[in-house]
Amino acid sequence: MSEFSQRLHDNIRSKQTPALVGIDPRFKQLPSSIVDAARQRGSSEAEIVAAAFEEFCFRLIDIVAPLVPAVKPQAAFFEEWGPPGCAVLERVIRRARTTGLIVICDAKRGDIGSTAEAYARAYLAGSDPHAAVWGADALTVNPYLGRDTLEPFVKVADERGAGIYVLVRTSNPGAGIFQDRITEGQSLYQQVAAVVEELAQETAHGSEYGAVGAVVGATYPKELEQLRGAMPHSPLLVPGYGSQGAGAGEVASAFTSQGLGALINSSRGINFAYNRAPYSERYAPEDWESAVEEATKDMIDDLANSTPAGALRD
């Protein structure tokens, strides 16, 4: 097993859940108390937003760290606010890692040659948080440019005990326009999956899981089941649960009978639980942290009750 997959699965076993909390700070949805405090500290709009993001994300991490094995900061929400936002992203990643969480930076990078390697070395710290400036355990990668897009990321990941998650079958409604295209009797996503499985096997070093995982959306449950079988050496990252409409039943096929092999992501449904039922009925905006905790525990229980993830509690 690759070093990344070993650390990931150790965390999943320790927390007894494959629940992954996405960190998607959206300024207009933040609790007003956090926004008001940030306005007193910042001068420019970007500085105010960045200060609010930092407080919100740090407090979010402290709530979920005892409950889940991993978090997934979405880089775009931070990058939107320029240097102040990017500086906060780096601190959020490091804060999460100090709590023992696996951190998957969702930046969907993809390029070739030395440029791809530069991206990889910037983000993929792996087992040593200080081995890369961004400090993440893993990174999402776009394979559109071909296998040579992936190889520099794979090389750095294998060297550093890091991981990558390659976009294979994404959860967005328009994914099929490209991903379902048939060439030589196979869809594009099936062809990408075949390359991912090859690279996963190469980085598994004769064991069960490699350093190369796949992003497969919960909103396509038949394809998810098919792809779990096609990529047995790849850890899966499964978006689409919760706010995007998929439930635990749609993600059950992502797991082995031991409840391993996948992380199931929920972002908005946990980050801003205090804004939606049933949590909005029980918690005032100033109690948003309690709503986050309850929503996280509800997700954990849902996965345990309706998928093989329940085996992690045995």
Describe this structure in words.
With 314 residues, the chain is an alpha/beta fold. The chain is globular, with a radius of gyration of 19 Å. β9, α11 and β10 form a beta-alpha-beta unit. It contains 14 helices and 10 strands. Helices cover 48% and strands 14% of the residues. The protein has an 8-stranded parallel barrel with strand order 1-2-3-4-5-8-9-10, surrounded by 8 helices. Strands 6-7 form a two-stranded antiparallel ribbon.
Summarize this entry quickly:
The protein is of the alpha/beta class. It has helices at residues 3-15, 32-41, 45-64, 75-79, 82-98, 113-123, 147-160, 176-179, 188-204, 221-230, 248-251, 268-271, 279-282, 288-306, and strands at residues 19-23, 70-73, 102-109, 138-141, 163-169, 182-183, 186-187, 212-216, 236-238, 262-266.
- Please give the CATH class: Alpha Beta
Q: What is the strand arrangement across the widest sheet?
A: 1-2-3-4-5-8-9-10
Q: Helices and strands, in N-to-C order?
A: HEHHEHHEHEHEHEEHEHEHEHHH
* Gross morphology: globular
- The CATH superfamily label reads Aldolase class I
The main sheet comes to: 8 strands, parallel, barrel
Rg result:
19 Å
How many discrete domains? Answer: 1
CATH topology, what is it called?
TIM Barrel
Mean pLDDT: 96
How much of the residues is beta strand, in percent? 5-15%
Secondary-structure class:
alpha/beta
- Number of helix segments? 14
How many strand units? 10
Unreliable stretches (pLDDT < 50, length at least 5) are none
Portion in helices: 40-55%
